[in-house]
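Title: Comparing notes on inverse folding

I've been comparing how different people in this forum approach sequence design from structure. To keep things fair, I'm posting one structure and asking everyone to reply with a full sequence. Here's the target:
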């Protein structure tokens, strides 16, 4: 059973920062892309950021310049540094990962339970 565990969510004022962390209980050689999704109440889940094995990254337009995704290449860990947070960033943030050789075009082989991020105005 693969475990994906997120941490670092919480309540912060607008303009503040949070750092999310995620670890996957798999060998470093079996995981490919990792990233973060979020889902706000009444809205569809959206991709926030993804980082691939080679280090390339993609971000949602709404977070570019404010969020940074990074990865520890020695461990199965991915981070999301969130700066200049806005109330519209309020959502449950989910960590996701794909195994090497996955046929998926998007993340989704493994999912975490989610961590709540609330930004007050």
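Reply #1:
Here's my take.
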């Amino acid at each position: 059973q693969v475990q994906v565990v997120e941490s670092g969510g919480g309540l912060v004022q607008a303009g503040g920062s949070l750092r999310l962390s995620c670890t996957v209980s798999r060998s470093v050689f079996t995981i490919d892309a990792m990233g973060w999704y979020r889902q706000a109440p009444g809205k569809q889940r959206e991709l926030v950021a993804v980082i691939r094995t080679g280090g390339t990254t993609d971000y949602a337009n709404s977070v570019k310049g404010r969020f940074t995704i990074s990865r520890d290449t020695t461990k199965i860990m991915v981070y999301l540094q969130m700066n200049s947070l806005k109330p519209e960033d309020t959502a449950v943030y989910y960590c996701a990962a794909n195994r090497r050789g996955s046929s998926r075009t998007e993340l989704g082989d493994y999912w975490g339970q989610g961590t709540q991020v609330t930004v007050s105005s």
